[in-house]
Specification:
This protein is of the alpha+beta class and 597 residues long. It has 17 helices and eleven strands. The chain has helices spanning 8-18, 35-53, 57-63, 79-88, 107-141, 144-156, 284-320, 344-376, 380-415, 427-436, 444-455, 462-478, 485-508, 513-549, 554-571, 574-583, 587-591; strands at 66-67, 73-74, 159-164, 180-183, 189-199, 208-217, 227-233, 235-237, 243-246, 249-254, 265-278. A five-stranded mixed barrel has the order 4-5-11-7-6. The protein has a two-stranded antiparallel ribbon with strand order 1-2. A hairpin with a 5-residue loop joins strand 8 (235-237) and strand 9 (243-246). Helix 13 (485-508) runs parallel beside helix 16 (574-583) and helix 14 (513-549) runs antiparallel to helix 15 (554-571). The radius of gyration is 24 Å and the shape is globular. The two termini are 44 Å apart. 52% of the residues are buried.
């Protein structure tokens, strides 16, 4: 059976020593997040995930969710009591506003819990994760009455939430959706249509499910400009907050899918269901994007989470599995063979995963801090800068972390050899579960197009230019330190590759859009590799400082420095490959006629 240990100490090192969250003490909620309290919160989060969620992961996968003839759905054994423990601990509302029952703590801590829970049990973690996304949209665009009615029980976990976008005939192109909304004359609307791939669409974990549904009003403009967003409760809610009649929404079936079997991915049928408009009519995508952006960051954490739990199990196996002898002679002569961790190729796989995980965690937490700044700072310039960084990096985080997270789950499976292909070891579940994160909330090719087509040129390239400036200042600030040169010099070369790629796109993408499309995926990963390199520079600087300040941590910090050097030497050179692909253009790619494929 696979195991999981929440990386509490590494996360605290990143928050306290690398990102220095104490400097944000003037922001709402941060004053309460002292190092001691943060340590206690992360410790309790890890305990819940290790002891309650992780033991249900394999059984939840094996048994899955079940739909009954009346349309109801039951989750795997143990999920309901685990959800009660999760909700009862206040984890859903960790960062939600206190006026609605939340704790008001930094969003960064919610992102930490998202990683821990997704590593322990990705399918389970989607239930509270989707609820938090629905809450974000509701709190941003809902009316005061809607917030007061729906937010407290969702924060409490008595009610959960979903997002309903996709239909059989439309995925990414939401302008094709046909679900309709007809005014009833009493302020409500009749919602009719079918949605597919709806995660957590029906289940037995909560007494009500609040669906956020995209639909088109009669006479609305064609395309995405005519889409509105509606609250459609599973059970209608009375004015006093009590539950009324069952609404006209039901689960038609559960999708038979590759992984995340413990989450009910439903076909949802809306038969004149009562719905309530959120925000302005025909501005539904604007409201839904709040939830989608939150979801994209959550999905990025899923990629990291599966990479982390797969790594932990591969590492444990590599230390125990005896196979052959080290190329330089026996390392454990008293044993019949050496453990496979002595072999360079096994170390290559493990270090590639480890070097990614630690920097990706730092990058994701840095993005979460940007979200906190963008929403809580009283300084308009600071809010703008944080929002720019977050906007630029969100598609990179979603695309790169899920792509590499899946690759790393496969690498970890490879460490097991044939045992990795056998279900009882658990590695094949990590691979199957990780695969969906590359697809939903916008397939990763769409993330890359969003980055190159929208985020790069936005406001005259303000965000990417700020990224270049911040990167140059970071590297320049450490360039005189001899101990930092193994990290600074490679990062400078990679940043130069990114600048060349960006310049090429500026010169070649506008006149020929296919050049942007052909370059977008490589550009996303190029930017991602550079962002991870800058995180490793920050980690290395903090590790060197901590070695001096706290000598008892010297060995642990030296391990981080070695991992940073590995990233710079073995993984960061990929930026030159990505650059070469980008500047090759689109001519060859687009020249082959479809019938010749």
């Amino acid at each position: 059976m696979p195991s999981y240990k929440a990386p509490v100490d590494d996360t605290l090192f990143l928050l306290n020593d690398v990102l220095n969250i104490q400097r944000f003490g003037n922001l709402e909620g941060f004053a309460d997040a002292s190092p001691d309290l943060t340590g206690q919160i992360l410790g309790e989060a890890g305990k819940l995930c290790e002891e309650v969620l992780a033991p249900l992961n394999a059984s939840g996968d094996a048994n899955g969710c079940k739909r009954h003839p009346d349309g109801s759905v039951t989750t795997p054994a143990g999920f309901k009591s685990a959800f009660e423990a999760y909700a009862g601990g206040g984890w859903i509302g960790l960062s939600a506003p206190p006026e609605y029952g939340g704790q008001g703590l930094p969003y960064s801590l919610t992102m930490v819990m998202s990683e821990f829970a997704s590593s322990a049990n990705m399918a389970f973690a989607m239930y509270p994760g989707l609820t938090q996304g629905a809450l974000a949209a509701l709190l941003t665009h809902g009316s005061p009455e809607q917030k007061k009615l729906y937010a407290p029980p969702m924060i409490e976990g008595r009610w959960t939430g979903t997002m309903n976008l996709t239909e059989p005939q439309c995925g990414t192109d939401l302008g094709l959706l046909t679900t309709k909304a007809v005014p009833r004359g009493d302020g409500a609307y009749a919602i009719t249509g079918q949605k597919i791939f709806i995660s957590a669409g029906e289940h037995d974990l909560s007494e009500n499910i609040i669906h956020l549904v995209l639909a088109r009003l009669e006479g609305a403009p064609a395309g995405v400009k005519g889409i509105s967003l509606f609250i459609v409760p599973k059970v209608l809610v009375n004015a006093d907050g009590s539950l009324g009649q069952r609404n006209g929404v039901s689960c038609g079936s559960i999708e038979e899918k590759m992984g995340i079997h413990g989450n009910a991915t439903c076909v949802m049928n809306y038969d004149g269901a009562t719905g309530y408009l959120i925000g302005e009519a025909n501005r539904g995508l604007n409201a839904m994007f709040v939830m989608m952006n939150e979801a994209r960051l959550g999905v990025a954490m899923q990629g990291l989470a599966q990479s982390e739990v797969a790594y932990q199990n591969a590492l444990a196996y590599a230390k125990e599995r005896l196979q052959g002898r080290a190329l330089t002679g026996p390392k454990y002569p008293e044993k019949k063979a050496d453990p496979i961790i002595v072999h360079p190729d096994v170390r290559r796989m493990l270090l590639e995963i480890k070097a990614f995980n630690e920097a990706a965690r730092a990058l994701a937490l840095s993005a979460a801090l940007d979200s906190d700044i963008a929403h809580r700072s009283g300084d308009p310039a600071a809010r703008q800068a944080a929002d720019d960084r977050l906007g630029l990096l969100t598609p990179v985080l979603k695309g790169m972390l899920t792509d590499v997270g899946f690759e790393n789950a496969v690498k970890a499976q490879q460490v097991f050899g044939g045992h990795g292909y056998i279900r009882e070891w658990g590695m094949e579940q990590f691979v199957r579960d990780a695969r969906i994160a590359m697809i939903y909330e916008g397939a990763n090719g769409i993330q890359a197009l969003d980055l190159v087509g929208r985020k790069l040129p936005r406001e005259g390239g303000r965000a990417i230019m700020a990224f270049f400036k911040e990167g140059a200042e970071l590297l320049g600030g450490h360039s005189a330190n001899e101990a930092m040169k193994p990290f600074v010099a490679p990062a400078q070369a990679a940043l130069a590759d990114l600048q060349k790629a960006s310049m090429w796109l500026m010169q070649n993408a506008m006149a020929k859009p296919d050049n942007a499309g052909a370059a977008s995926y490589d550009y996303m990963h190029l930017l991602g590799r550079v962002a991870l390199a800058l995180m490793w520079v920050k980690i290395a600087a903090a590790a060197l400082e901590k070695q001096v300040r706290e000598p008892e941590t010297a060995a642990l910090m030296e391990a981080k420095l070695t991992t940073a050097r590995f990233y710079m030497e073995r993984m960061l050179p990929e930026t030159s490959l990505r650059l070469a692909r980008i500047v090759s253009g689109a001519d060859t790619m687009m020249s082959l006629a479809p019938e010749m494929f």
